[in-house]
């Protein structure tokens, strides 16, 4: 008997679609709001070049770009999870709702972070802590689905066993790394400025070696 066809769960095919559409809309609005602090930056004055303006506000611009791309990558993983479910239960609903709340909170946190020259003191801890929460909550969704395959669609993509553990580690490892950056930003802000570069090798290491395939071939 297919375990994905047994058991009970809340939601219908239509309600899953509405959950996905709602989640995508919330993320789209949140990443758009990220740019609002940049709109308050005045243009170059008389005799001033645009590059001097960019230089003065480099921290805000870099924070926007970094946050935008990281959230886009997190959304991609989150979207793949939601697209693989045929039903959702209360656990998925509330974890997903909390994940979205952190995403919506991020524009406010990132605005403070950019204005503080990349996270001095507690501002950095709040920013990186929020990023960590998003990563951990996304990992929690994946963990719950691995324990409840009945919630998945019959043709949900499946990774080879050698890659499943690596993917399962991705959210916790990235979340822990974000927390470490936040703690370092409190005690050594200059060091914390360079630590985000570590996301690149971590992402390469945690990337599955093979593309997922559907169970029906």
Feature tags:
2 strands, 217 residues, disordered C terminus, 9 helices, mainly alpha
What this model shows, in words?
It is a single chain. The chain is built from 9 helices and 2 strands; from the N terminus they run ααααααβαααβ. Helix 7 runs antiparallel to helix 9 (199-206). Mean pLDDT is 83; it is low at 1-8 and 212-217. It has one domain. A two-stranded antiparallel sheet has the order 1-2. The protein is globular. 69% of the residues lie in helices and 2% in strands. By secondary structure, the chain is mainly alpha-helical.
N-to-C span: 18 Å
Strand line-up in the sheet with most strands: 1-2
Low-pLDDT regions: 1-8, 212-217
Helix content: 55-70%
Tell me the series of helices and strands, N- to C-terminal. HHHHHHEHHHE
- Name the overall outline: globular
Please report the total strand number as a whole number: 2
Structural class: mainly alpha
Quote the average pLDDT.
Answer: 83
Quaternary state of the chains: single chain
Number of helices: 9
**Could you tell me the strand content as a percent range?**
under 5%
Per-chain topology:
Blueprint: H1 13-33, H2 36-39, H3 50-56, H4 58-83, H5 90-115, H6 121-147, E1 157-158, H7 161-187, H8 189-192, H9 199-206, E2 213-214
Antiparallel strand pairs: 1-2
Offer a concise description of the structure:
About 70% of the residues lie in helices and about 0% in strands.
């Amino acid at each position: 008997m297919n375990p994905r066809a047994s058991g009970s769960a809340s939601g219908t095919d239509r309600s899953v679609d509405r959950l996905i559409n709602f989640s995508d809309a919330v993320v789209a609005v949140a990443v758009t709001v990220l740019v609002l602090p940049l709109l308050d930056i005045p243009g170059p004055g008389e005799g001033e070049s645009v590059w001097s303006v960019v230089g003065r506000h480099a921290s805000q611009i870099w924070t926007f770009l970094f946050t935008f791309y990281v959230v886009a990558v997190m959304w991609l993983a989150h979207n793949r999870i939601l697209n693989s479910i045929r039903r959702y239960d209360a656990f998925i609903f509330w974890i997903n709702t909390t994940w979205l709340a952190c995403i919506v909170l991020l524009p406010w946190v990132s605005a403070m972070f950019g204005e503080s020259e990349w996270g001095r003191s507690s501002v950095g801890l709040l920013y990186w802590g929020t990023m960590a929460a998003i990563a951990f909550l996304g990992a929690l969704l994946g963990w719950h689905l691995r324990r409840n395959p009945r919630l998945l669609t019959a043709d949900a993509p499946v990774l080879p066993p050698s890659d499943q553990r690596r993917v399962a580690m991705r959210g916790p490892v990235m979340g822990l790394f974000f927390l470490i950056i936040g703690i370092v930003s409190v005690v050594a802000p200059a060091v914390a400025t360079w630590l985000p570069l570590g996301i690149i090798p971590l992402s390469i290491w945690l990337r599955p070696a093979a593309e997922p395939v559907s169970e029906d071939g």
